[in-house]
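Hi R.,

As promised on Friday, here is the backbone we talked about, encoded as structure tokens. Could you run it through your design pipeline when you get a chance and send me back a sequence?
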């Protein structure tokens, strides 16, 4: 239907890069829906121009605009600025139903069937499954709902300091009222959860439709060698599966990078792509990173307890899988 759209938000050029890849992934999997990108005032003109080439509509949202209903609430809670920006998606009243997707998500197959769900449909958060993760959710634009959300946000704040806390408090019956509003986890597969419950990922991971790069380190924080098809950097801080990370960079380098070069021209911009001199077949893609000094078993244990496992090295998915298979046998 013409009035149903996928929506994302980019408040910086880095997140705009994520939105570009997300948009391309939706297009590549033949979505029949329109795409809308909400952008903040700090997104540069060249990045906006690239988004215009991928999205049907690019709309500027600014919570500091005095004409905005959020402005007065901002005076009380300036710490929730980015949260207010995301809530603007409810003002898209030209459309009847929308699916919001964070800019750090990647679509792996067609997901148009999400529009059969009702507000507020979302997948459980791996950290607290009675809460939904706000990286992917189905909603109906409404100025009335927007106003109520702004009021709730300004009066009650957010229990996690962001939009997820606000939305879970507002849609507080999500966990108990209607099971049809619980999206399967494959529509918002957390890269962190892959490692916390590896057997389930082995069983169901091949059905994943959306991967969500949660955490401080994002795909665009790495660099990609276009010749050797390898991703480099951030070896100790990443919680994402190497194959998904490679898919993100492959799509960026093949479909987004040229668009950025067209718009930036002679202006400098950092793409994260480098040209190498070693060719590796696509079927042999792998992650590479500088070697790390050996770590004692006690140090490894402390790292695990602090949530700092070496997911790209000794604690990689392949190594964990081998250890698990050995244990089960």
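Update: got your reply. Pasting your designed sequence below so it's all in one thread:
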């Amino acid at each position: 239907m013409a009035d149903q759209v996928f929506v994302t938000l980019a408040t910086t050029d880095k997140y705009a890069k994520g939105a570009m890849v997300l948009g391309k992934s939706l297009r590549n999997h033949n979505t029949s829906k329109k795409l809308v990108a909400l952008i903040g005032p700090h997104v540069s003109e060249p990045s906006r121009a690239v988004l215009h080439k991928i999205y049907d509509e690019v709309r500027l949202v600014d919570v500091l605009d005095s004409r905005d209903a959020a402005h007065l609430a901002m005076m009380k809670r300036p710490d929730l600025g980015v949260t207010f920006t995301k809530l603007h998606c409810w003002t898209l009243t030209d459309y009847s139903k929308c699916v919001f997707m964070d800019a750090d998500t990647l679509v792996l197959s067609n997901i148009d069937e999400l529009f059969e769900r009702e507000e507020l449909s979302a997948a459980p958060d791996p950290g607290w499954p009675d809460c939904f993760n706000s990286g992917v959710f189905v909603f109906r634009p409404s100025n009335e709902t927007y106003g109520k959300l702004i009021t709730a946000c300004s009066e009650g704040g957010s229990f996690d300091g962001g939009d997820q806390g606000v939305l879970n408090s507002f849609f507080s019956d999500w966990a108990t009222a209607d099971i049809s509003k619980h999206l399967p986890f494959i529509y918002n597969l957390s890269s962190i959860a892959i490692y916390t419950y590896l057997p389930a990922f082995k069983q169901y991971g091949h059905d994943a439709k959306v991967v969500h790069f949660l955490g401080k380190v994002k795909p665009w924080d790495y660099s990609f060698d276009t010749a050797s098809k390898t991703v480099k950097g951030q070896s100790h801080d990443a919680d994402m599966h190497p194959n998904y990370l490679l898919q993100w960079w492959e799509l960026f380098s093949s479909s987004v990078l040229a668009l950025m070069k067209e718009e930036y021209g002679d202006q400098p911009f950092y793409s994260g792509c480098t040209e190498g001199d070693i060719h590796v077949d696509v079927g042999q893609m792998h992650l590479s990173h500088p070697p790390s000094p050996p770590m004692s078993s006690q140090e490894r244990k402390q790292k695990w307890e602090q949530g700092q496992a070496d997911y790209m090295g000794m604690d990689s998915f392949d190594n964990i899988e081998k250890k698990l298979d050995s244990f089960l046998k």
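One thing I noticed while checking it: Confidence is low (pLDDT under 50) at residues 276-292.

Thanks again,
M.
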